[in-house]
Amino acid sequence: MKILIVHAHPEPKSLNGSLKDHAVAVLEAAGHRVRVSDLYAMDWKAAADAADYGPHASSPLKVPLDSGRAFEAGELTADVRAEQEKLLWADTVILQFPLWWYTMPAILKGWVDRVFTYRFAYGVGEHSDTKYGERFGEGTLAGRRALLSVTVGGPESHYAARGINGPIDDLLFPIQHGILYYPGLEVLPPFVVHGADRLAPERYSAVVEAWEQRLLTLETTEPVPYRRQNFGDYEIPALHLKEGLEPAGRTGFALHLQH
Questions:
Q1: Which residues contact residue 202 at a Cβ distance below 8 angstroms, ignoring those fewer than 6 apart?
Q2: pLDDT (tens digit per residue) in 198-239
Q3: Beta carbons of 120 and 76 less than 8 angstroms apart
Q4: pLDDT tens readout for residues 188-203
Q5: How far apart are CA 96 and CA 150, in angstroms?
Q6: Where is each Flavodoxin-like fold domain found (predicted)?
Q7: 3-state secondary structure string, 219-257?
């Protein structure tokens, strides 16, 4: 496989840094090719602005349209073009990050904001009475897999179905479904390390062993069964899930799972 790891933690000696380094070692030892975008080490610019689009920036700035024009002209900034090339090169993408304030660190969100431009990650395909663009199961990045590797400070019970922080699957849904599945990536179940702030040495060994197993089964793990947008489950153009497709009583984000 060709694997891109996008890493977002400011401390190289952190748990996240260790998991990233271990992933590189395990995957390369298994014969895979690995590239790493270490966002803090790269001093990644997080804010999308007119400078990203050069002569294609309008006044007032229109981020989607301007980014699309710059992308199609091949005139996005060099750092953004390099990350898009990495995504097209890879067949598997791993996002390695700590859960901060219930989401990804700002630098990683900024990577998404700048790299997932119009005409690259969204705004592709036909829009008609039967199809609403190529997204949610189709798109530029279709045929690739993605995995979130996330460290969480609190214990697992805080993120359970009745936990005060909400279910971890719900917290990660905007990233997994809204960022990764949207442009076509198949999303694997996340690798989540709870209690990361108080991880004892003996538990670290268990975490590393579990992480190795996830890495060595990337090709065979079944993805999260999200519904595809243009294949009959949704009314178009309303994009409402058709009545009766969900199991009785199912609501919320889980409506968008096939089973």
A1: none
A2: 888 888 999 999 999 999 999 999 999 999 999 999 999 999
A3: no
A4: 999 999 999 888 888 8
A5: 6
A6: 1-215
A7: CCCCCCCECCHHHHHEECCCCEECCCCCCCCCCHHHHHE
Query: Is-contact 104 78, C-beta < 8 A?
Result: no
Residue in this structure with the two tokens 């947008």, named with its chain if needed: 229
The single-letter code of the amino acid at 217 is T
Q: How many residues does the chain have?
A: 259
Which domains are assigned to the chain?
Answer: 2-224 (3.40.50.360)
Query: In this structure, are residues 37 and 5 in contact, taking their beta carbons and an 8 Å threshold?
Result: yes
Beta-ladder partners of 38: 7
Alpha carbon distances (Å) from 116 to 106, 147, 191, 238: 15, 17, 23, 24
Check residue 142 and report its DSSP letter: T
Q: Give the global pTM.
A: 0.95
Which residues, 6 or more positions from 173, have their beta carbon under 8 angstroms from its beta carbon? 253
Cα–Cα distance, 109 to 10 (Å, whole number): 15
Write the pLDDT tens digit of every residue in 52-69.
999 999 999 999 999 999
Cβ neighbours for 149, distance < 8 A, ≥ 6 positions apart: 19, 23, 94, 95, 96, 97, 190, 191, 211
Tokens standing for 255? 């409506």
- 95 close to 6: Cβ distance less than 8 angstroms: yes
* Cα atoms in the Cβ-side hemisphere of radius 13 Å centred on 80: 28
